[in-house]
Design goal:
267 residues, alpha+beta, 5-stranded antiparallel beta sheet, two-stranded parallel sheet, 8 helices, 9 strands, globular
Length: 267
């Protein structure tokens, strides 16, 4: 950058790893990372920083992480950080990155870095709203192993909290994380009842160290393709509850099938 000079002499500040917005593994990482990066960037701007440069190594199946929500993250950050003086680089090791991930990467980055240090406009880039799939086309997990331990039709939020607490009681999940999950499922049931269409169904699958809950209603799902990934100021929309779930849960899936729109939450 500045041959023969230190970073301080160049006016460049490098953040140590502990200051970076690395998301904890017990939350839905893509959405949590977006929030934590925004908080970090806001602090820098308040300190008078005029240019922020980020090199962000995004997880993917090549390093053992699921890709569905990281693909959404790669799309949404093209708008999520618009109000910051930001330049970002996302490196991918093509030796271990799956082809379908590289294809998504090519569609979510407006510019491509070349081996000789150049930067080219990317003709394959798609605006986030065009890249993000419809809920019917969204990726979904495989079926759970066996029938649910509880299935409620038309549950109230109180019903949801009761059955989720009962399911959590037989696991090794710590109390704080468990209670956060109770509130996330309760909020999902409320969203389905208020913004979706009947019938609303809640299903629970407990395990030794995790619990899976699905909330399904007969509606089409949120209109906003960024739902859950970005905070919203519209408190009457379903986006608030979905955003909260992404901050709390280990993983969140949103999709639509023949039964309706489903929110799948993993503690």
């Amino acid at each position: 950058m500045c041959p023969g000079s230190t970073l301080d002499e160049c006016g460049v500040r490098a953040s140590p790893p502990r200051d970076a917005a690395s998301a904890p593994t017990t939350t839905c990482a893509g959405a949590t990372t977006t929030r934590r990066y925004r908080e970090l960037f806001a602090r820098y701007v308040e300190q008078g920083v005029s240019q922020i440069r980020v090199v962000g190594d995004v997880p993917h199946p090549g390093v053992g992480e699921p890709w569905d929500w990281w693909a959404r993250y790669e799309a949404v950050v093209n708008h999520a950080y618009d109000d910051f003086p930001l330049w970002g680089l996302c490196p991918y090791d093509v030796r271990i990155t799956p082809e379908h991930v590289l294809a998504d990467v090519a569609r979510t980055h407006p510019h491509v870095a070349t081996p000789d240090g150049g930067h080219l406009d990317n003709d394959g880039y798609r605006d986030p709203a065009g890249f993000l799939p419809t809920w019917r086309d969204a990726p979904r997990p495989g079926p759970e192993p066996g029938p649910p331990s509880a299935e409620l039709v038309g549950p109230t939020a109180a019903d949801a909290r009761r059955v989720v607490r009962a399911a959590l009681a037989g696991t090794g999940i710590d109390a704080d994380r468990a209670e956060d999950f109770v509130m996330a499922v309760s909020e999902a049931v409320t969203n389905a009842s208020v913004h979706g269409k009947p019938p609303v169904r809640l299903r629970i699958w407990p395990g030794d160290d995790r619990v899976v809950a699905t909330v399904t209603d007969g509606g089409e799902g949120p209109v906003d393709p960024f739902a859950g990934l970005l905070a919203t100021a519209e408190t009457r929309s379903a986006g608030v509850g979905l955003w909260m779930a992404h901050q709390i849960c280990r993983h969140v899936s949103l999709y639509r099938d023949e039964e309706g729109f489903t929110v799948r939450l993993v503690c």
